[in-house]
Amino acid sequence: MINRNDQCWCDSGKKWKNCHFPNKGTAKSSSPEDLKSQYFRKYHIILKTEEEIRGIRRACRLTSEILDKTCAMAKEGVTTLELNDYAHKLHIEAGAIPAPLNYGYPPFSKSICTSINEVVCHGIPDNTKLRNGDIVNIDLSCILDGYYGDCSRMVVIGSTTPERQLVVDVSYECLMKSIEILKPGIPVSAIGDAIESHATARGCSVVYQFVGHGIGIEFHEGPQVAHNRNSNHILLVPGMTFTIEPMINAGVPEAIVSKKDQWTARTEDGRASAQWEHTILITDKGHEILTTWKR
Q1: Contact of 193 with 239, CB cutoff 8 Å
Q2: Rounded distance between C-alpha atoms, residue 294 and residue 252, angstroms
């Protein structure tokens, strides 16, 4: 974490406490435009205008609504492809675009991600039927009027094992504990500190190969938001929008990406993994959860 006596991030040559230290009447403050320019130049972080925030908020609300409806459909005997097709239909009806479709290289072939049991993330929907005891992460990202929303939820199919239920619960707890601390002036690294502290205390591990990310104007912006302990000293400031999406494993933290499809990531030891995700806005006094899904 950045110290009051460290050099300020803005390259002024002054100590942080005498420059941009938050909540101090004697601290020098940049104009919003100066800060916006500095953050984009240094970190590729886009600080959003009020108009942009309104657009991102609408995209996040729609993303959450489609996610909730898709999760409600996830029951024993339903295939992940059926979930994908239903979510795709809801996008089209709302005038939105599913952001994952044809994204990346090789192009992602479906509109949502469905990650079952030991799949950490980026599971590709197919004809696999959900079975009693499965846990499945449904990850959904929308583009609405040029703005992005991104979120995910876990669904437990029927009655599951203690290990699978543990990672479902711990990943949710990690997400919410990391959100609780968010406000201007804290470093990005505090998010990973909060997540890893709680996960390890509960006997779980944190995947470090995948991160949360800035979002809103682009699908992936700065900053990268690591979910494990790290040294990212970038300070949170109003106008930042990003995801937090901790991937929590019952066993080892490592994930292995499929050589066949180059997307599906599974736990190295085959044990359970779970993830929940919100998109967050940093406000003048704290934070706002932009995605509105219901657990």
Answers
A1: no
A2: 29
Residues 6+ apart with CB under 8 A from 83: 70, 73, 74, 112, 114, 125, 138
The side-by-side arrangement of strands in the sheet containing 273-275 is 205-206, 247-249, 273-275
**pTM over 0.85, yes/no:** yes
SS3 at position 122: coil
CATH at 155: 3.90.230.10
User: What's the mean pLDDT when you consider all of the chain?
Assistant: 93
Residue 5 lies in a domain: no
Using alpha carbons only, how large is the chain's radius of gyration in Å?
Answer: 19
| Digit-coded pLDDT (tens) for 276-285 | 999 999 999 9
Task: Provide the residue range defining the domain that includes 70.
Answer: 28-289
Nearest to 124 by CA among 247, 214, 257: 257
